[in-house]
Amino acid sequence: MRLSQYFLPVLKETPKEAEIVSHQLMLRAGMIKQQAAGSYSWLPLGFKVLNKVQRIIEEEQNRSGAVQLLMPTIQSADLWRESGRYDAYGKEMLRIKDRHERDMLYGPTNEEMITDIFRTYVRSYKDLPLNLYHIQWKFRDEVRPRFGTMRSREFLMKDAYSFDLDKESATAAYYRMFVAYLRTFARMGLTAVPMQADSGPIGGDLSHEFIILADTGESAVFCNKDLLEKPIPPLDTDFRGDLEPIFRDWTSLYAATEEMVDEDRFTSEVPEDKRVSARGIEVGHIFYFGTKYSKPMKATVTGADGKEIEVHMGSYGIGPTRLVPAIIEAFHDDAGIIWPVSVAPFEAVLINLKAGDEATDAACAEIYAALAAAGIDALYDDRDMGAGGKFATADLIGIPYQLIIGPRGLKSGEAEIKHRGTGERETLPIADAVERIRALVVPQRLDAI
Amino acid sequence: MRLSQYFLPVLKETPKEAEIVSHQLMLRAGMIKQQAAGSYSWLPLGFKVLNKVQRIIEEEQNRSGAVQLLMPTIQSADLWRESGRYDAYGKEMLRIKDRHERDMLYGPTNEEMITDIFRTYVRSYKDLPLNLYHIQWKFRDEVRPRFGTMRSREFLMKDAYSFDLDKESATAAYYRMFVAYLRTFARMGLTAVPMQADSGPIGGDLSHEFIILADTGESAVFCNKDLLEKPIPPLDTDFRGDLEPIFRDWTSLYAATEEMVDEDRFTSEVPEDKRVSARGIEVGHIFYFGTKYSKPMKATVTGADGKEIEVHMGSYGIGPTRLVPAIIEAFHDDAGIIWPVSVAPFEAVLINLKAGDEATDAACAEIYAALAAAGIDALYDDRDMGAGGKFATADLIGIPYQLIIGPRGLKSGEAEIKHRGTGERETLPIADAVERIRALVVPQRLDAI
């Protein structure tokens, strides 16, 4: 993409309304624009990151055996009356009346609707296990939305729902999501720690939050340091096999949010030099809640013995619109964002130090075409402005590699590559530059983990 | 995807509530489920098609120079008060009050919001031309939603908005979209005819609808038959060049919807043997509307001479959730849907005629792995049921190629391929089957046109 033809409204000043660094940087890097309280447009750069985050989530959900569909944003109130949550949900639910005065609502979550889909079509134990998920906009009318897309009212959620015959197989479904979540966050460069969680208003007795550590996290967390360095289940993990050992391994070390922490256990189970007491951001939450919805909504299947069985369910959420700022909280410096390659809006930025100079323009055009031919998703800063502004933009928007071409280098046949993360610079023959970028980028792409 | 692990709730009976064939087939093929009046879940098979349709739209929008972003579904009423449309829009607008009693609405379209984004960031004539688009859910509270997702209340829309300095460059932007639309529909296998249209409530004086002919179309259309056989602008069309000749070529032949038709012109301009009088489905609509929104909303840029200029705008819509049934209206027979490869949910279906038989299962597992390795998106019907049901499902859901493997063929080392569209069958050595499928599929994929 040529920057002169792109829409990248970077800001020089840090907007006053933004309290946390990710919100500030998303505004400054032209990633989002606020449209109303807790409501944001995703501008092109932000939209690209959001898409890559979604793609990683989808790949790992699919790999684990979950099947993607898409439910509408607006729901009928009747479904929620069946589960008993219509009155219970409170003011966070955005309630709507249509032109015929029917009660509708903007879905804050989808347990009721997915249970309705399940009971409409699934009749036999032979059709289980089943895990259905979608990625759709949700609305929760919070009193005080804040921190940009970290806690917005309209937000994107991946929500998966598992259906099983009994608690045992539901637990196996839970383990599959547990492992899929470990892989999902790791592929975005994040160290996410699963912590036993309160099951909250949804209910149930098996529940974990996935937390990444960040100073701006909303809650205090306590865990064993070894959890931060644990290797992630590999690409060839067999999701049809027994995943309980992985689950046991990860949950054997102490980790809890402030709502759940038992300080005696924390100090007795975790050696002093391993105790991590920090702040964290919740980026995923998984629940097992048994027959909480299948019972009132009559979601049953016929078992092998001909009897009707209420299915055991779980739900599994990830917030892509929250993950983007969470990644920024984890990866930034004073100059701006430092994207991991797997979610970077562009993998490299080609910086033309003298746009308008015929030789430099020609060389850059050739390199830009070569980057595209090599399959690199590159931004080409072809703007007619000084080098300082270009470097500042490149640093701010956090593209992993800057390929710098100017008249002086051209004379000696040399290009410069700056690694955004480390600040490292390398000078190399122009002819080798594209291959070098490729060699840097490819091993860090989506499927490298 | 193994069908035994998929969620494909096909129906044997044609649901009574469905009036048109696409609606019937989408329900029967397990593509959608109605959730409320004019509101649908997209079940896995339907969701896959919807995704492919979106991908084609995105590729052609990007190719034409439009830049993708994403605006929220819920909008503040204040923006619509600025343009004067808040009161004018009527009951089709879904109006909402949040917990603080602020007036919100579920966006039926986005002219106001995109104009707000534009005026917030764009200051100079140097930043033009600009075309921003998104694909987002919309809601229009129609009195009588019908025909499934063809006319639903909650629907997906690709809406692009162009910003230019004057009418001349806005017209060039209009031509770019005109050509992008021709390519978009053609890549889905559709023959879409651009017809001069009434500009309706949005206003303006340059407006075309893109119509595909179908007996179930909602409006009568009249056109020159030559338009149905016109070659589409090719892949290497230069969107930075002059596209007026393509526009003139397409619009020189008579074509009009019933709202716009001039019967005298139709009969005088179109030779009798070229007159097509048929019914049509609108799948796209493009408008130029000048300063209709930029003037009241003060979206101006500074010109080269330092003066403030109100920008000239156009908007360009395509409905992906309507395109899916429109494609089915164009491609089906008594047995079911016949997907063009470019939008097919799966490119091939592997039919195991004797699931449970060890040798057949082993052969199919091997072929299924080979299809995946060859990059074919295949469904594997591994269900434990009779061949008749499997053939019926494969025909109903419309997968372009059926690769049929059974114990008898295994003995002679032969497989059968059925072409869903023509009914043609070929018998060939099993060892050649995957390569044959690949050779059939690849030239018809997304990028072949």
TrEMBL record, chains A, B:
Keywords: Aminoacyl-tRNA synthetase, ATP-binding, Cytoplasm, Ligase, Nucleotide-binding, Protein biosynthesis
Matches recorded under InterPro entries: aa-tRNA-synt_IIb (IPR002314), aa-tRNA-synth_II (IPR006195), aa-tRNA-synth_II/BPL/LPL (IPR045864), Anticodon-bd (IPR004154), Anticodon-bd_dom_sf (IPR036621), Pro-tRNA-ligase_IIa (IPR002316), Pro-tRNA-synth_IIa_bac-type (IPR004500), Pro-tRNA_synthetase (IPR050062)
Subunit record text: Homodimer.
GO cellular component, one term: cytosol
Source organism (scientific name): Arsenicitalea aurantiaca
Entry EC no(s): 6.1.1.15
Source species, domain of life: Bacteria
Signal sequence extent: none
SUPFAM superfamilies: Class II aaRS ABD-related, Class II aaRS and biotin synthetases
Aminoacyl-transfer RNA synthetases class-II family profile domain boundaries: 38-340
Stated name of the protein: Proline--tRNA ligase
Gene3D superfamilies: Anticodon-binding domain (3.40.50.800), Bira Bifunctional Protein, Domain 2 (3.30.930.10)
Annotated function: Catalyzes the attachment of proline to tRNA(Pro) in a two-step reaction: proline is first activated by ATP to form Pro-AMP and then transferred to the acceptor end of tRNA(Pro).
Subcellular localization: Cytoplasm
UniProt similarity note: Belongs to the class-II aminoacyl-tRNA synthetase family. ProS type 2 subfamily.
Principal cellular location given in the protein's record: cytoplasm
Biological process annotations from GO: prolyl-tRNA aminoacylation
Family annotation (Pfam families): HGTP_anticodon, tRNA-synt_2b
Catalytic activity line of the entry: tRNA(Pro) + L-proline + ATP = L-prolyl-tRNA(Pro) + AMP + diphosphate
One GO MF term attached to the UniProt entry: ATP binding
Gene responsible for this protein: proS
